[in-house]
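User: Okay, second chain of the day. Same drill as before: sequence in, structure tokens out.
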Amino acid sequence: MFRLTCLAIAVATMAPVAATAAPAAYHAPRTGFGAPDLQGIWNNTALTFLQRPPIFKALMATDKEEAMMVGMFKKMAGSIIDPAPIDPKLPAPAVVQEAPQTDYIEMELRLARINGQPRSSWIIEPADGRLPFTDAEKKLRAAAAKAPEPFDNIEDRDTQERCLTAIGSPEGPPMMNTGFNGNYQIVQTKDYVTILVEMNHDVRIIRMTDRDHLPAAITPWLGDSVGWWDGDTLVVETTNLDVKGHVYSLGGGFRYSPKTKITERFTRTSKDQILYEFSVDDPIVFTKAWKAEMPMRAAKGPMYEYACHEGNKSMEGILRGARYEEKRK
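Assistant: Same drill. Structure tokens below.
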């Protein structure tokens, strides 16, 4: 660092200063069929939230703001990210409220960097880094927050809880960062790009053969995705998202409506990083389309199976509890 600083001072005091050539733009390697090669295992974990927390003044965070964010998260997460050693010789406690977890959080405990700059939010437009909900949507969200939680019917439970969609919405779209299992494997052929999502073991299949979407009545959990190449950038447009699904993320989320259209852009900017950009357009939920971006960095792998299934014991207990309450009343 000292040598670099001295060099910068020396260059700044030279007169005249010769113009230097800009660094050459990175060009992604090509597949056997000539497309930019995005294949590999990638990870998007970071402490950056979708929406900008109030402690930040701008999109580019300062060192002080980042330190505050890290400190607040560590205080909130507590022993989950910094567990005390467990003595295997200790007897079982009289009452167990929560079992200690030593490897639950595997995210990077720092803000994500894009072009070396720490980001305070994924959202870049609007400038305040907040989701631009319509007034009608704000009322719906407020009413939903006050409504009693449904325990009566399995189909009323959250799709993440039922293992239909993943915790934290890493499969998207858009694909959000979570505190764990934030790995993706991209595999390409001439006609398809597939993204294997570690959480929930979902696979996104992106058609590269045409831009025509499925009929509106067909609404897969991950929507209907079609893609094309814009230079070195993979562009993916997704519609037909199931309105029972939604995006939950660190720092807030949003629901899908029949009008939701999500456009994603994947650009390999270096050997070990992909710039992932996305925009969400939905005139029912938002006053205007909004944009965000996050880095995906190369991961060593391998990816492991995430075994989640809808018929879990927790769901059985929830429904049994509802039946018990009915009898008691």
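Residues 1-22 have pLDDT under 50 and may be disordered.

User: Thanks, on to the next one.
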